[in-house]
Amino acid sequence: MVKKLIPMAICYDFDGTLSPGNMQEYDFMKALGIKNSKKFWDKAESIAKEQVADSIAAYMYLMIKASEEKNLPFKRATFKNYGKNIELYNGVEEWFKRITDYAKQKGIALKHYIISSGIKEIIEGTKIAKNFAQIYASSFMYSPNGEAIWPAVVLNYTSKTQYLFRINKGCEDITDNTKINDYVNPQERAIPYSNMIYIGDGSTDIPCMTIVKRSGGHSIAVYKASKNGKSKAEHLITDDRVNTVLPADYSKGKQIDNYVKKVIDKIAADEALKVQCEARKGEKIQVSKKKQIKSDFLQILRENFGEIELEYKFPWLALPEIDKLDVDTKKIYDVLSEMRGFHDFYCIGRRLRCDYVLMKEKIIIEFDEKQHFTEQRACSLKFYPKIPLFFNKNLWLDHCNDIKAYDNDPPYRDEQRAFFDSLRDILSFKNGFKLIRFYEKDLETSTGREKAILRLKELKDENS
After folding, report:
1. Which of 208, 275, 346, 385 is 20 to 30 A distant from 391 in Cα terms?
2. Is the dihedral of CA 234, 17, 172, 74 positive or negative?
3. 348 and 264, same structural domain?
4. Is residue 346 one of the residues assigned to a domain?
5. Rounded CA gap, 382 and 370, in Å?
6. How far lies 104's CA from each of 95, 98, 435, in Å?
7. Looking at the structure, do residues 317 and 363 belong to the same domain, yes or no?
8. Strand partners, 139
9. β-strands 244-247, 134-142: how paired?
10. CA 327/CA 336 separation, integer angstroms
11. Quick one: pLDDT at residue 235?
């Protein structure tokens, strides 16, 4: 069975996070002849205040108006061309494959996402666009002739959080407004918040940073290396918005590279512990289930046969010196010893217990759980002497071949269990008892238990 990979996501802002500048300040402003980018942003802010509008919608509106005034309409392909020359921080181009490969080595399926207030079409034109599972960013509507005419999607600092919810639930289609609002059990969500990293640089990232951090994930604030770059970002730690503040250098061996790898290691370790705990929980449930089956079976035995001896030790069911074993049991001991070279499973003087005994009827009942069906048990059954057995030997061999249980605590436990079961079967017959075995699975239902009682009554009648 192919091991299921652990889902994980890294979500990135773009401007100031992967790129040192605003994407509009590269070829877009050059094409319009805008030499003073500050004037452009100031005007966008002024429009937002005058119109009581969203600042992101305002700058997108201004982009359209500025292009109209210059009679230079923008098409989707034009925007993509503007993305080609966007400067990226050191190491960004090699980052995605390196980190994805590292995660895969740890059993993690890592996806990368953009959540940006910048322009989607420009990001799609960058050299790194192919690395993202989804690019969530502001985008335009287009006229029939393909010209940008109006904002289609506007991502501001609060609406960015919607896309974390979509990634978490596995509802990545932004046109689906139904599934995103459906309740999904946290255990069934596509990517848990605890398996997310959010990387951003500024105030528009604070809501996303906060959600991821407070939901058990990791948020990282990056800064451009400068005299006061770090100090500007450090308040995000003191305000409990992020887990750490690191320079925006994505090269191998740099701080962000090392930190993200440690988070990946932690996610892998947490999942391993979770699996281990669930396995132990499952074992406890199985133990509880077995106890219930035994309890139900004992109750129906008492209802039908009255007094039942439990865990009974017969004096004739004790292990003598090895050289005093009879020919039949000595042969089985030798065969089991030769399988893996274990001899320590023989305990001189040990008296073996029998699960249930109907003393008057001279019937012994053994309750065989899965651990009894091993290769060693199959081997011992093949060397039984020609004696009557009151369980289906061939069926027990089939169970051994199908289940192939394994118990290495102690290392010789399978040989020991197979030998002890063989002694019970053979010595019971030689001492006038009929030993019958029931597989625990066959006793799980009331129908199975009733069949077992009918078989026991048949044995009782045969003894009468």
Report:
1. 346
2. positive
3. no
4. yes
5. 19
6. 14, 10, 54
7. yes
8. 153
9. unpaired
10. 14
11. 77
Same domain, 220 and 368: no
pLDDT tens, residue by residue, 304-323? 988 899 999 999 999 999 88
> Which single residue is written with the structure tokens 């322009």?
119
Q: Give the domain range for residue 38.
A: 6-276
The pTM (predicted TM-score) of the whole model is 0.63
327 plus 366 within the same structural domain:
yes
Q: Give the end of a domain, one of 232, 258, 276.
A: 276
Residue 108 has pLDDT above 80, yes or no: yes
What is the chain's percent helix, strand, coil content, to nearest 5? 50, 20, 30
Whether pLDDT at 10 is above 80? yes
Give the single-character DSSP code of 26. Answer: T
297 assigned to some structural domain: no
Q: How confident is the model at residue 1 (pLDDT cuts 50, 70, 90)?
A: very low
Same domain, 215 and 345: no
Q: Report the candidate in 211, 197, 198, 64 with the shortest Cα–Cα distance to residue 140.
A: 64
Side-by-side strand order, sheet with 218-223: 148-153, 134-142, 108-119, 6-12, 196-200, 218-223, 244-247
Specify the length of the chain in residues: 464
User: What's the CA gap between 378 and 381, in Å, rounded?
Assistant: 5
Considering just the CA atoms, what is the radius of gyration of the chain in Å? Answer: 36
CA dihedral sign, ordered 12, 14, 19, 21: negative
Q: What is the mean pLDDT of residues 439-456?
A: 91
Residue 5 carries which DSSP code? P
Count of domains for the chain: 2
Distance of alpha carbon 167 from alpha carbon 342, whole angstroms:
55
Q: What is the residue type of 288? A: S
Tell me phi and psi for residue 355, to 5 degrees.
-55, -60
36 plus 97 within the same structural domain: yes
User: Of 113-127, 215-229, 299-313, which range is least confident?
Assistant: 215-229
Question: 295 lies in a domain?
Answer: no
Q: What is the pLDDT of residues 328-337, one digit of tens each?
A: 999 999 999 9
* Sign of the CA dihedral with 300 first, then 304, 310, and 313 last: negative
In a domain, 87, yes or no: yes
State pLDDT tens for residues 343-361. 888 888 899 999 999 999 9
